[in-house]
Amino acid sequence: LTLDQYQAMVRSQILTEADALEFLDGFLIPKMIKNPPHRLSTGLLQDVLLAWLPPGFHLNVQEPMTLVTSEPEPDLAVVRGQRRDYRDRHPGGAEVLLVVEVADATLARDRGLKQRLYSAAAIPHYWILNLVDRQLECYSNPQSQAAGSSYGDYALVGEGEAIIFPWEPEGQGGEATDRTRPVVGDLL
Description:
Elements: H1 3-11, E1 21-24, E2 27-30, H2 36-52, E3 57-61, E4 76-80, E5 96-103, H3 107-111, H4 113-120, E6 125-130, E7 135-145, E8 148-158
């Protein structure tokens, strides 16, 4: 399917919210049923991101974004502007600062297909909260290559390590603040 065909199916209500599907790279992919650990981690990460959002951005939770060949619904996305800016459309890759997928059963898809889609859309930061290995995978510096898209930089944050947000000024991530810096283990 093309993105236009998919969007026409949504507009004509051939596909509705009752259809647990995501449109990824031309295919309708079933969404995974969220188990309690996934639901808990998504909610905990939502709370943390809301407390640390940069000015001029808002948080989307399991809402669509429109990319060139896809309309994924990531678990969380930090989006430029206000919600009302997107009254008539979904945000695109250029308006998204960070996408987060909470992964257990979808870990391979999140590391593969979704990582390529987000990188191709030039989304600067992509995180996978990896529930299997109890760590946060942080990808940045999207790069387009002849064979496909990927991220040029990768950092792994372990369960006991503090989270540094990509919008924090360089070198300030480790400094003391008036807020307690969350650690990955707080999200599991």
